[in-house]
Specification:
The protein is an alpha+beta fold and 722 residues long. Among the domains are: 87 residues, Alpha-Beta Plaits, CATH 3.30.70; 84 residues, Calcium-transporting ATPase, cytoplasmic transduction domain A (Distorted Sandwich), CATH 2.70.150.10; 142 residues, 3-Layer(aba) Sandwich (Rossmann fold), CATH 3.40.50; 115 residues, Calcium-transporting ATPase, cytoplasmic domain N. The strands form five sheets. Strands 14-26-25-24-15-22-23 form a seven-stranded mixed beta sheet, with helices on both faces. A six-stranded antiparallel beta sheet has the order 6-5-7-13-8-11, with no helix packed on it. The protein is elongated, with a radius of gyration of 32 Å.
Length: 722
C-alpha cells in the first residue's frame, strides 16, 4: 500500500478573540494523528496545517475545533457570486455586539444578575441567595461546557476552566452574589475582547473591499456586467470615470488620472495612458479607460497584498515566540500558587479556610495569559494593516522586529535611488561603422536584457532596424554578450572591455571624460575591435536627498552599493551627501553587507532582481517596485510607491510597532503583578480579578489599534526609539 503524502490544508476559524484561543486550537488539533506543522493566525482567523488524511480526516479536525466552541469553514472552495450568500457574509462580518454569541451571553447574565438583585431586595436574603445561585449556574453553564470540551482534549488549564472553578468555588463558600457578578463580568469581558479583535481585523478586511465585485466586459463591441472574479487574462474591460478598476491590467485606450491611494497610499492621482499599468482597486478619476486584464483575480496586487498580510502571521517575531514559551508555564504556575494560597495558611497558620479559598480563587482568575499572548500579534496585525494602506509591506513580525533595529541602510543605485529610466546622452563611434549601425548592433545584443541601461539603448535604437542575436548570455555585473551576424559581440562596462581587448587607449580616455561628467558608459565591441561608446545618465529621484536626511536624523547610516563606475557613483552620492562603494559585483555587494552586519543591523534596498544575494544576506531586504511580482515575493519587505522617503517611513512603522509591543507587554504583566499581590493580601476580590484579566486583554488590543492611526511618513514619529 502506498504511503499517503501529507497535504497542506487551510480553514477559516471564527470566534477567536484572544491569544489563548489560538493556543487552545493549536494544542487540541496537535493531538490528532497525522497532523503536523500547525499554524493558527489569530488576527486573520486562519488555521493551516499539514494533514495525512489516511490517519485523520479533515472532518475530524473541524469536529475538534467546533467542540471547543469555534466556527470553522474549509478554505479553497470556488468563489460564489450569489447575492444572498454575499449579503449573509457581509452581515456576519458587520454584526453588532449584541448579535454575537458572546454578546447574547453578556446580555443574559446581566439580566439574570439584575433579576437576582431585584429578588434579593424584594424578598428575604435567603431567597436572594438562591436567586444569585441560579443566575451563576445558568451563566456559567456554557463556559463550563467549553471548559469540559478542552479538558477532554487534554487542556486542563484554560480560562474557561479557571472561571468555572472560581464560580463554583465561590458558591461553595457562600459568595453567591459575587459568583454571579464574576460570571457577568467574564461574559462582558469576552464580549469586549470580541469587539476589539473585530476592530483590529477590519483594517485587513477593508483591503478586500477595495476591488469592485463586478466589471464591464467588452466583447464584440458590446459591454456586459460580469463578476470581477471571473475575468480572464487578455479580456478587455471598460472603466468609467469614478469607478474602481476591477483588475490589474494595461491601458489599451484612453488617458485619465488614476488615484492609486487605496493601493499604494500615493495621494496625488497619476496621469496614465495607453501601455501604462494600472492596479485593481485604483480609482479612475477623469475619462473612460479600456484596460486589458493582465492578472486573474486571485493574482492581482490587492489579492497578493492580502495574502502577504495573512501569511505574515506565520513569520512570528522573536518576542512573540518568547512570550508563547513564557505563557506555557505561566498559567500552571499561577494555578499551583493559587493551590498553595488556599492550603498553606489554614494548615500551617490555622487561618480560616473560607478567607484563603476566596483569595486563591481570585488568583485563579488572573492566571490566564490572554492579554500577554495577544500583545504581540495584535500590534503586528495593526502595523501590517497600517503599512499596507500606504504601500509599505513587511512579511511578518520577524521582519518588523529586524527593521526596527536597523542601523545601516545600503541602497542599490539604478532604479532605487535613481528613477531607473536612464537615457542615452552620447553615442561615440570608435570604429568604421556609422551611428545607425552601432545602435542596431547594440540593441541586438541587449535584446534579452531587462537592465534599465539596456532598455535605454534599445529605446535609442527604436527607429533603427535591429539585427537578430543568438546565444545571448548575461555577464553578471559587467554586461551582455551575444552572437550577431555570426560574430560574437559584447556590450559591457569600460573596465571589463579594457581587460578583454575591447577598448584601446583613445577609447578609454573618451570613456573617462564621459564618466567625469557623471554619466554611465557602456562599450560595444567585438574581439579586439572597439565599435562605440554609449553614455547614459540616470538622475536621482526627487525625494532621494530628503530620504537621506531623514535617515541620518534617525541615527541611521545610508550608503550606496553600486556596480556603476566610481565617477558616476560619486556624482550621485555627492549630491545626496552619503558614502558609496562602486564597481561592485554581486559577490562584493554580498561581502559588503556581511561586513556592515558585524557592527549593526543592515537594511538593503534594491530592485529585487539584480541584488538578490545582498537582499537575502541583509537583516531586512527591501524591494522597491510598483507592485511587481518580484517586489512582493523576493525580499522581506516591499515598497509599492517609487519613493525613497518610504524607506525611513518603513523603519518608523517598525519602530512604532515594537514600541507598541513593549507598552502592551508592560501593561499586561504590570496589571497581572499588581492584582496578584492585592489578591493574596485580600485587598481585591473576585470581581476585580476578572476585570484585571479581561480588562487587560481589551486595553492591550485597543492600544494595538492605535497603530492604525500612525502615519510613518511624518518625521514627528522619529522620537520613537528603536
Amino acid at each position: 500500500m502506498l504511503e499517503q503524502t501529507p497535504t497542506r490544508r487551510e480553514w477559516t476559524v471564527t470566534g477567536m478573540d484572544c491569544g489563548s484561543c489560538a493556543s487552545k486550537i493549536r494544542n487540541a488539533v496537535g493531538r490528532l494523528a497525522g497532523v503536523s506543522d500547525i499554524n493558527v493566525a489569530l488576527m486573520t482567523e486562519r488555521l493551516s496545517l499539514s494533514l495525512d488524511a489516511a490517519q485523520t480526516s479533515p472532518a475530524k479536525v473541524e469536529e475538534v475545533v467546533t467542540s471547543l466552541g469555534y466556527g470553522i469553514v474549509a478554505k479553497g472552495a470556488a468563489p460564489t457570486h450569489n447575492a444572498q450568500q454575499e449579503n449573509q457574509d457581509h452581515s456576519q462580518r458587520h454584526q453588532r455586539w449584541y448579535q454575537t454569541a458572546k454578546g447574547r451571553l453578556a446580555t443574559v447574565t446581566g439580566t439574570l444578575l439584575c433579576l437576582a438583585w431585584g429578588v434579593d431586595l424584594l424578598t428575604s436574603s435567603q431567597i436572594g441567595h438562591w436567586a444569585f445561585v441560579v443566575a451563576c449556574l445558568i451563566g456559567v453553564t456554557p463556559v463550563a461546557i467549553r471548559a469540559y470540551a478542552a479538558l477532554r482534549l487534554g487542556q486542563p488549564f484554560t480560562i474557561e476552566g479557571l472561571m468555572t472553578i472560581a464560580a463554583l468555588g465561590a458558591l461553595f463558600i457562600n459568595e453567591a452574589e459575587e459568583a454571579a457578578l464574576v460570571v457577568f463580568l467574564f461574559a462582558v469581558g469576552e464580549m469586549l475582547e470580541g469587539v476589539a479583535a473585530s476592530k483590529a481585523r477590519n483594517g485587513i478586511r477593508a483591503l478586500a473591499d477595495l476591488v469592485p465585485k463586478t466589471a464591464l466586459l467588452e466583447e464584440d463591441g458590446a459591454t456586459s456586467e460580469v463578476p470581477a472574479a471571473r475575468l480572464a487574462v487578455g479580456q478587455v474591460i471598460v472603466v468609467r470615470p469614478g469607478d474602481r478598476i476591477p483588475a490589474d491590467g494595461n491601458i489599451v485606450s484612453g488617458t485619465s488620472g488614476v488615484d492609486e491611494s487605496p493601493v499604494t497610499g500615493e495621494s496625488v492621482p497619476r496621469s496614465k495612458g495607453p501601455g501604462d499599468a494600472v492596479f485593481a482597486g485604483s480609482i479612475n478619476t477623469e475619462a473612460v479607460l479600456r484596460v486589458a486584464v493582465t492578472k486573474a483575480a486571485q493574482d492581482n496586487t490587492i489579492s497578493r497584498i492580502i495574502q502577504l498580510v495573512e501569511e505574515a502571521e506565520d513569520a512570528r517575531a522573536p518576542t512573540e515566540r518568547f512570550i508563547d514559551r513564557f505563557s506555557r508555564w505561566y498559567m500552571p504556575a499561577i494555578v499551583g500558587l493559587a493551590a498553595l494560597v488556599i492550603v498553606l495558611p489554614p494548615l500551617v497558620f490555622g487561618q480560616l479556610w473560607e478567607t484563603w479559598i476566596y483569595r486563591g480563587l481570585a488568583l485563579l482568575l488572573i492566571g490566564c495569559p490572554c492579554a500577554l499572548v495577544i500583545s504581540v500579534p495584535a500590534s503586528i496585525a495593526s502595523a501590517l494593516s497600517a503599512g499596507a494602506r500606504r504601500g509599505l509591506l513587511m512579511k511578518g513580525g520577524a521582519v518588523i522586529e529586524a527593521a526596527a533595529k536597523t542601523t545601516h541602510v545600503a541602497f542599490d543605485k539604478t532604479g532605487t535611488l535613481t528613477s531607473g529610466r536612464p537615457v542615452v546622452t552620447d553615442v561615440v563611434v570608435l570604429g568604421d561603422l556609422d551611428e545607425r549601425k552601432v545602435l542596431s548592433l547594440a540593441a541586438a545584443v541587449e535584446a534579452g536584457s531587462s537592465h534599465p541601461l539596456a532598455a535605454a539603448i534599445r529605446a535609442q535604437a527604436a527607429d533603427t532596424p535591429v539585427m537578430t542575436a543568438t546565444e545571448s548570455r548575461l555577464i553578471p555585473g559587467r554586461g551582455v554578450e551575444a552572437v550577431v551576424d555570426g560574430i560574437k559581440t559584447w556590450v559591457t562596462n569600460p573596465k571589463y572591455a579594457a581587460e578583454h581587448g575591447g577598448l584601446d587607449a583613445v577609447g578609454s580616455m573618451r570613456a573617462t571624460a564621459l564618466e567625469q561628467e557623471g554619466k554611465t558608459v557602456a562599450v560595444l565591441y567585438r574581439a579586439d575591435s572597439p565599435l562605440a561608446l554609449f553614455a547614459l545618465r540616470d538622475e536621482p529621484r526627487k525625494d532621494a536627498a530628503d530620504a537621506m536626511r531623514q535617515l541620518r536624523a534617525m541615527g541611521i547610516t545610508p550608503i550606496i552599493l553600486t556596480g556603476d563606475n566610481p565617477r558616476t557613483a560619486a556624482a550621485i552620492a555627492g549630491g545626496l551627501g552619503i558614502a558609496f562603494q562602486a564597481e561592485m559585483m554581486p559577490e562584493t555587494k554580498l561581502a559588503a553587507i556581511k561586513a556592515m552586519g558585524q557592527s549593526g543591523h543592515v537594511m538593503m534596498v534594491g530592485d529585487g532582481i539584480n541584488d538578490a544575494p545582498a537582499l537575502k544576506q541583509a537583516s531586512v531586504g527591501v524591494a522597491m517596485g510598483s507592485g511587481t511580482d518580484v517586489a512582493l515575493e523576493t525580499a522581506d519587505a516591499a515598497i509599492l510607491r517609487d519613493r525613497v522617503t518610504d524607506v525611513p517611513a518603513q523603519i518608523r512603522l517598525a519602530r512604532g510597532a515594537m514600541a507598541n509591543i513593549r507598552q502592551n507587554v508592560i501593561l499586561a504583566l504590570g496589571l497581572k503583578a499588581v492584582f496578584l499581590v492585592t489578591s493574596v493580601l485580600g485587598i481585591t476580590g473576585l470581581w476585580i480579578a476578572i476585570m484585571a484579566d479581561t480588562g487587560a486583554t481589551v486595553l492591550v488590543t485597543l492600544n494595538a489599534l492605535r497603530l492604525l492611526r500612525l502615519d510613518p511618513t511624518r518625521e514627528a514619529n522619529d522620537r520613537i526609539s528603536p
